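Example 5.3 — Mutator family transposase
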Amino acid sequence: MSYAEKELIKKLAKNPNIKTAEDAQNAIKSLFGGLIQQMLEAEMEEYLGYSKYDYTNKNTTNSRNGKSKKTVKSDLGLFDLDIPRDREGSFEPQIVKKHQTDYLD
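Solution (predicted structure tokens):
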């Protein structure tokens, strides 16, 4: 286990809202969903070639066009994601593919 993982576990253990195993599982579920969401945002940034609000490095006619909601099933249960969209409709996320609702597919 890495140092960062150990520190994250320590922070979670100190959380006063985590009192039961179910609370811990919900916290892990929330972290997992947040991680997948950040990975989707990074995919969009890589795809477009510029960071959000970094218009000085924008070398494309394509741009972000909001997000669509998706509920995905995993070992941790159901969680909601906001899937980024682009204007041209050509962005194909890889971490959670289009039409994928089961994260274990």
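Remark. The chain has a mean pLDDT of 91.
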